[in-house]
Every structure is written in structure tokens, then in C-alpha cells.
Amino acid sequence: MKHKILKSLDEHSSGPEVFAELRSLLNETHEKFLTGLRLQDYFEMKLAPVGAQAGTRLKSMLNGLQYAVDMEGEAKGQGMQFEMHRGKLEDYSLRHMSAVADLMIIDRKTLAPFCGEDVLGQLMQSLYCPVLVLPETRDIESLVMVFDGSFSSIQAVKSFVTVFHPSFRELPFNLLVQDPESQKAMQKERVFIDYLKMFFKDIGVQLMDDDTIECLDRVIGRTSEKPLLLFGGNTGKEVLKCNLDARYIADNNPSFIYKGGEA
Predict the structure, then answer these.
(1) Is 135 contained in some domain?
(2) What is the C-alpha to C-alpha distance for residues 148 and 237, in angstroms, rounded to an integer?
């Protein structure tokens, strides 16, 4: 099987560290075609004042070209199929690339120069593929998922077990579910849990007795060590909202969001 992976990078992203992390995250048995994206190019086009672009863009472009050469040379030495995106990086180009990608990995460090704006939310609007958002601290020792009953929640798991390294299946899996309102909802929940059991050995199910953010906060604080959070598109949007509680959860925990093909 082959996967197309997009990875956000900047000049502070070390080649050896980037490729080592990708090997630890992604399915080792699948062939991977990697494309590096300098999100600095994207946000400079969107956020910089028009009059200030000409002088700063040239220096940024030259730095980017040198970085691309260095990263592609490092990838070749490690036997990785990798290329840096060259040319303009705008909404339309992100949509085209993400439409055929299996995953985009966004390192929050590459967004740091643009803090103060809802930069992650803006970026997500232009992406069609599933997204993994990595904070500064990214050790992963458990999995936490909110199942909201949506199709994208189911697809999130199908995508996760295909693209990510099989070692993640050995971690404790904490599933948060809503109180089913009907027999059909109960059956859907039961079928989903049976599907999870095909891949994950240590599954715990907890009923959500409060709103999503409150329940996530409690689970992360009390029962889950260094979690990777899994969301379908609806819950992912809720967690990425720019209120302080939601932002704290997304900023401090690796988050995998399946968008369901809608930008």
C-alpha cells in the first residue's frame, strides 16, 4: 500500500529528527511519498501587509530554496521518498494537494511565528485530508477518542489503523461515548466497539455525562497518560474552537482529526 503524506516544516526543523519521527509515527510496511510544506510561505501571503511583502518575501524565498535542497539531500541519504513543495503556497494549492493526501502532519512549532491569530483554524479550512497536529511535547502513551456517532468518527479509526504505526494498537484506548438515545444508536455504538476490538487490545469505554470539552479534560487529567486524541470532523471542529478550554486541550496533546473530505 502507498500513502501520500504532507508535513509542515520550517528552517528550524532538523532533517534527521523529522525523518526519525515520521518513521516512528507512520506504518512501516507501507510505501510513503512525503511532501514538505513551508507554512511560513502560506501565512506570509495571507497575513503580511501588502506593502511589506516585496522586501521580506525575497529573503524568505532564498532561505526556503536552500532549506529544500538540504532536506531533499538528507532524505535521499536516508532512502526516503521526499520532496519540498516549490512555488506559491495558497489556499487553492493546499486544497489540491490535500485532496489526494492520506495525512497532513502539522507541527505547532511551525505556526508559532503567527500566534495571536486563529492560524490553525484558517489552515484547516483549506485542507481535505485527515490531519495530525503535534504540540511541543508529543510523547504518546495512550489513545483517547470521542465517538459522536458520525460517519467521520468511524472513518477516523479506519484511517488511523491504516496510516499509523502498528505499535499504537498496543496502547490503552479510552473511548468516550454519548448516552444512546435509541436502539439504533445503541446498535451503532456496539458495532463500532466490536470493530475497535479487531485492532486494539486494551479498550475502556466511558459515558460522557457533560459536554465534550469537560469530559475530555477529566479523562486526560485522571485516566490517560500522554494521550493522542482522535476525532471525527464535528468533534475536531469543536475542540479547535478558539476558546481557552478547547485551545488548552488541542495545544497540549497530539490530535488526529478526520475531516471527512470537507474543507
Answers:
(1) no
(2) 12
pLDDT in tens, 164-207: 999 999 999 999 998 888 888 889 999 999 999 999 999 999 99
Domain boundary among 86, 106, 129: 129
- Contact between residue 213 and residue 247 where contact means Cβ atoms under 8 Å apart: no
> How far is 196 from 172, CA to CA, in rounded Å?
12
DSSP string, 65-78: HHHHHHHHHHHHHT
What is the grid cell recorded at 72? Answer: 531533499
CB 232 within 8 A of CB 155: yes
- Taking only the tens place, the pLDDT of each residue in 91-135 is 999 999 999 999 999 998 888 776 555 677 778 888 999 999 998
* Domain-embedded: residue 137: no
CA triplet 5, 7, 12: central angle to 5 degrees? 155
34-75 pLDDT, tens digit per residue, is 999 988 888 877 765 555 555 555 566 667 778 888 889 988
Residue 113, domain CATH? 3.40.50
| Residues with Cβ within 8 Å of residue 129, at least 6 apart in sequence | 6, 98, 99, 101, 102, 103, 104, 259
CB-based contact 8:18 (threshold 8 Å): no
Inter-CA distances, 258 with 13, 112, 174, 237, Å: 25, 23, 18, 10
